[in-house]
Design a protein that fits this description.
The complex is a heterodimer.
Chain A (H helix, E strand, L loop, with lengths): L3 H39 L3 H6 L11 H9 L2 H32 L5 H10 L5 H15 L16 H12 L3 H10 L3 H12 L1 H16 L3 H6 L8 H11 L5 H25 L11
Chain B lengths: L2 E8 L9 E8 L4 E5 L6 H9 L6 E6 L2 E2 L10 E4 L11 H11 L4 H14 L15 H14 L4 E5 L7 H18 L2 E6 L2 H7 L2 E6 L2 E6 L1 H6 L4 H6 L6 E7 L5 E5 L5 E8 L3 E6 L4 E5 L7 E8 L3 E8 L4 E7 L9 E6 L3 E4 L5 E5 L12
Parallel strand pairs in B: 3-8, 3-9, 6-7, 7-8
Antiparallel strand pairs in B: 1-2, 1-4, 4-5, 9-10, 11-12, 11-14, 12-13, 14-20, 15-19, 16-17, 16-19, 17-18, 20-21
The chains are: A mainly alpha, B alpha+beta.
Chain lengths: 282, 369
């Protein structure tokens, strides 16, 4: 008798947990299923895919991947995207952190006003900027060149916003301690602010890399040669250009293209450990 | 030489009321100078002005005879320990200590030497490779101290360095800081809101309140001769009793009367009028009486073992605190007669000290700690 209330509570918790995991399981299935299906079909012969016999029957084969690597320019596309995404990521880390530093640690007139102007640019959808940007790069003579896919994306309002929030978390005392130690702004930025904000910088890096990797519209408009094409446009190219629709191969290429993003996410989440900055103050 | 403050005033841009006005003080070489006051009195602001982190609005700051007003912090050649410790979370203990030295471009061999010495001095040698998050609060505090020790500057500023520690650790660190300061011959300016820290550590104490310096003196000087109400109430636990008293008769007299039982006999006559008399809790006598006699009723008794704190309410509704040595057995609601044993302070209507009764007696210090 004395356990009645406890037993009821245990039962309730069990029921609650079952329901929770059931719901999570369903959601996970909805999200993961298309990906799993894509990977699965990339191992099937194109004939099977065309016939619609996805399950059973056909043999799993790496043939699609071999074809993708040998018959298409996917390696070139990967290299292009890697170069572009790396440059954009590095530029974001550098320029956004500098901008955010100024908004947090420097005192200047209209500081908040300028920050809101920067924020305001986030209101403009990229599609609205395409035409003026295109005119600009055309005037600069950058069309059909790597730089056209890098230069317009050297900084990001979102990155500045995010890092500003992070830098604001840095205890005021650390800045004062650095002042007493005689650190210049540049030294403080490099030796304290950057290492202190490692987690956010990694997050921003992952975000920027993925953003650049998944660029589609802008490279399509500004590049015309196959050897400059990044992966997303490359995929589109494969799909439309291949003489017979080799769906297995296209699927395999898509899988290859996704792999680097998965690596970035994996490395990224490894750094998303919390508590890295614990122990600085108090 | 030391540090000299002349008419230091701080007014922030957005307000016209100063947060500190006309602070004058002289800190001697090698002394531990405590700035004490309630929160918001501007003590941290004053310290940051000495450090050079906050610009001085008005007045002159001299360090070793040189005017330092617009000199950047690093050229003032001082070290600072923050309330929050301000450790770099991504650096090991040793690197934290070495950080400031590297920033000052000291030779590598000397940095190693200094870091080793400093860590040894605070007993952290075995933790040198740990990150701050792997240390306890007390150990983090020591790292912050080691940073100040490793620096070659002879002036150290500390901003409430012990307020995040538990009570026991605080008592220990208090004496450790004091020892280090003596051993290294540091000129230490120490900011705290804790009067016990001020009493136990300081060579000289500056009491700040209401944007103004209330008093600068040695700890016992402040305890024995508080300049005004505020200082009298701020120092000593339990708090001093402040009672309204009047003179008797029409001429200057030595007798101040609170009521029939509680009267103070002064050394020198005082003009007729109404005054405030301050009497430390251990300078009040208390005797249980029958029925409705006496002048107060006991409302609370705190037995601490070696002493007993008795709170009583006087018939004029003023609460008083009395400290008795040893263990005193007395019932709640007991009527008592409260009398003055001797030493007392007399304050005028401006709350300033104008007269004292009784000389400095060692046993008054018992109330501290």
């Amino acid at each position: 008798m004395e356990n009645t209330i406890m037993k009821q509570a245990t039962k309730k918790r069990l029921l609650g947990n079952t329901f929770k995991y059931l719901l999570l399981g369903i959601l996970a299935f909805i999200v993961i299923f298309p990906f799993a299906l894509g990977i699965w079909t990339s191992f099937l012969p194109s004939m099977d895919i065309a016939k619609g016999t996805l399950w059973g029957g056909g043999q799993l084969t790496l043939h699609n991947y071999v074809t993708a690597f040998t018959q298409t320019k996917i390696l070139r596309y990967l290299l292009n995207s890697l170069v572009i995404a790396t440059l954009v990521t590095l530029a974001h880390l550098f320029f956004c952190s500098l901008g955010a530093y100024a908004f947090v640690f420097l005192d200047f007139k209209y500081r908040d006003f300028f920050f809101y102007v920067v924020l305001g640019t986030m209101m403009l959808p990229f599609e609205a900027e395409v035409i003026p940007n295109f005119a600009t790069v055309k005037m600069l003579g950058l069309l059909n060149h790597y730089s056209v896919m890098v230069i317009p994306f050297l900084t990001s309002a979102f990155g500045i916003f995010m890092l500003r929030q992070t830098f604001k978390q840095i205890p005021r005392d650390l800045k004062e301690a650095a002042d007493v130690d005689g650190l210049s702004h540049w030294q403080f930025y490099w030796k304290v602010v950057m290492p202190y904000s490692k987690i956010s910088l990694c997050t921003l890096a992952a975000y920027s890399f993925l953003g650049a990797w998944n660029q589609y519209l802008w490279p399509m408009l500004t590049t015309f040669s196959d050897h400059l094409r990044p992966v997303q446009d490359g995929l589109r190219q494969l799909q439309s250009e291949e003489t017979f629709n080799d769906w297995g191969m296209v699927q395999a290429s898509a899988a290859i293209v996704v792999v680097p993003t998965l690596i970035v996410l994996y490395i990224g989440q490894h750094y998303f450990k919390s508590g890295l900055n614990e122990g600085s103050v108090k | 030489m030391g540090i000299e403050l002349k008419g230091i005033t701080k007014t922030y841009d957005h307000s016209d009321k100063p947060v500190l006005s006309e602070v004058n003080a002289e800190v001697q070489d090698g002394e531990l100078f405590v700035i004490v006051g309630p929160s918001g009195c501007g003590k941290s602001t004053l310290l940051r002005m000495v450090a050079g982190i906050i610009p001085i609005s008005d007045g002159i700051l001299k360090i070793n005879g040189q005017v330092m007003n617009n000199v950047p912090p690093k050229d003032r050649n001082l070290s600072m320990v923050f309330q929050s410790y301000a450790l770099y979370p991504f650096l090991s203990v040793a690197d934290n200590v070495a950080f400031g030295l590297k920033a000052r471009k000291m030779a590598a061999a000397e940095i190693t030497q200094r870091v080793d010495d400093a860590l040894k001095m605070v007993n952290l040698t075995q933790y040198r490779d740990r990150k701050p998050r792997e240390l306890s609060g007390g150990q983090r505090q020591r790292v912050a101290l080691a940073r100040a020790i490793a620096s070659d500057s002879k002036i150290c500023l500390m901003d409430e360095p012990l307020s995040n520690l538990d009570a026991q650790l605080r008592v220990r660190m208090r004496s450790e800081i004091r020892e280090l300061q003596r051993k290294l011959g540091l000129t230490l300016i120490y900011v705290t809101h804790d009067q016990t820290e001020a009493m136990t550590m300081a060579d000289h104490v500056m009491v700040l309140h209401d944007q103004h310096v209330q008093q600068i003196d040695s700890p016992l000087g402040i305890y024995n001769h508080p300049a005004n109400h505020f200082v009298a109430q701020f120092f000593g636990t339990p708090q001093i009793n402040l009672l309204t008293a009047t003179t008797s008769g029409q001429t200057a007299t030595t007798k101040l009367i609170v009521d029939e039982f509680l009267q103070v006999e002064l050394d020198a006559p005082i003009a007729t009028g109404t005054y405030t008399v301050g009497i430390r809790p251990n300078q009040l006598g208390l005797k249980p009486v029958n029925g409705n006699e006496g002048n107060a009723t006991v409302i609370n008794v705190e037995a601490l073992g070696d002493q007993t704190i008795i709170e009583a309410v006087m018939d004029n509704d003023v609460e008083i605190r009395i400290v008795k040595d040893g263990q005193v057995h007395i019932d709640l609601d007991q009527r008592v007669a409260v009398t003055a044993l001797g030493p007392a302070f007399v304050f005028d209507e401006n709350e300033a000290l104008i007269a004292e009764q009784g000389g400095v007696k060692d046993d008054r210090i018992v109330a501290v700690n």
